Amino acid sequence: xxxWICLLWAAxxxxxxxxxxxxxxxxxxxxxxxxxCEKLKEETNTLIDISSHDAQMRLLADCLNQQxxxxxxxxxxxxxxxxxxxxxxxxASHDLRTPLTAISGxxxxxxxxxCSENAGDYLAIIENRTAALRSLTEELFRYTIAVxxxxxxxxxxxxxNSALEASIASYYGALSQKGxxxxxxxxxxxxxxxxxxxxxxRIFGNIISNAIKYSDGDLRVTxxxxxxxxxxxxxxxxxxxxxxxxxxxxYTVNTARHSTGLGLSIAKALTERMGGTVTAxxxxxxxxxxxxxxx
Length: 295
Fold this sequence. Notes:
By secondary structure, the chain is an alpha+beta fold. It has 8 helices and 7 strands, in the order H-H-H-E-H-H-E-E-H-E-E-H-H-E-E.
């Protein structure tokens, strides 16, 4: 009888030890999970440290620390490269402005001179390409400013209703040329947000410009009281894959050969700098771009 009691106590002790071991392992796993989440969110070089002395758990922590070191190193290289790219684009676009202005000036002088019909045609082509290059240069300059903190955004109370109406009105001529009569739905009450007025106008303008390029002939603009502006148009030339890349810098759809591919990238950058979000989706050839500025 005593033997069975001893065996029972031994079994209970083993069970207790295993439960304690399991508890410590679960605690170590939780510490690792929390630490990894924190390290991924924050730019820090601190390492994962756990209270457990279990050899396998500490080996797992060491392995994750090595991966985090490599990830941080790659992140720093990416950020440095991205910063250098932005500076290079900013400097190049700035340096191109002066010679392009001079070229445009001389082209205007040449147009006043007598020349053959062929020479006139050549001048028209050169003038057109020069204008396109100037447009690209300006767009590159604006993009670099938009995605960096080089230019602080002065915030003020802005009516999103008024900004939308003004943006649509400014593109009325371009919309008419494409045969687009926009349908507008705005709440009676002004939707007020603390934003930069010029940046907001540029966001809406770039999105409307995108609709002019890709629309099949329609455009619906809706603003909700929650501060969500929705731009919807039929775009048979767009695919779901292309929609997923619309906000990528320099990305253009094949049909938009004269586009720099920076308009929606600028809209996204400015929106996020002011605490908003912008997304796009396409279903049954209906393209929708949502811009949200939460209260």
